[in-house]
Amino acid sequence: MATQGGLKHSLETSNLADVLERVLDKGVVIAGDIKIKLVDIELLTIQLRLVICSVDKAKEIGMDWWIQDSAFRQLVNKVPEPTGLAQRVSRLEAQLAERSGPKA
User: Fold this and answer.
1) 53 CB contacts (<8 Å, ≥6 apart)?
2) Residue 72 main-chain phi, psi, to 5 deg
3) In the 8-state DSSP scheme, what is residue 6?
4) What is the pTM of this model?
5) Between the CA of residue 2 and those of 5, 49, what are the distances in Å?
6) 54 close to 25: Cβ distance less than 8 angstroms
7) What is the sign, positive or negative, of the torsion defined by CA atoms of 73, 59, 56, 53?
8) What separation in angstroms does the CA of 98 have from each of 84, 87, 90?
C-alpha cells in the first residue's frame, strides 16, 4: 500500500479569536493604488496603505505616531475617568481582601 508522504490533511480548525490573535501578533499589510485616467491623462491617484497589528508589534516595527501626536494626546486627555467604575472596583477589591483575611 503506497502512501503520499508529501500531502497532509489538516483537521485542525481555527475560531475567530485564534485568527485575530495571529493577525495582531504577526501583522497584516494591505496596499493598493487607485488611478483615475481620462484619455491617457491621469486625473487622480490615491495610494492606500493599511497596517493591522497589535500596539506592541507596531512599536516593534517603529510605528508609534500616537505617542508624539499632540492632537491624539489631547483627545485621550478629554476622555473622563470612569469614577463610578473605579469606585466599584475599589469596593470589590476591599471586600475581596476582607474575605481572604490577613496576608502572612
Assistant:
1) 23, 24, 25, 26, 27, 28, 61
2) -70, -40
3) S
4) 0.43
5) 9, 48
6) yes
7) positive
8) 21, 17, 12
DSSP assignment of 10-53 equals ------HHHHHHHHHHH-EEEEEEEEEEETTEEEEEEEEEEEE-
From CA 16, how far away is CA 22, in angstroms rounded? 10
Q: Note the pLDDT tens digit of each residue in 29-88.
A: 888 999 999 988 989 999 998 888 888 888 888 888 777 777 777 666 665 666 778 888
What is the residue whose three cell numbers read 485575530? 20
CA 32-44-72 angle, to 5 degrees, is 65
Contact indicator for 66, 74 with CB cutoff of 8 Å: no
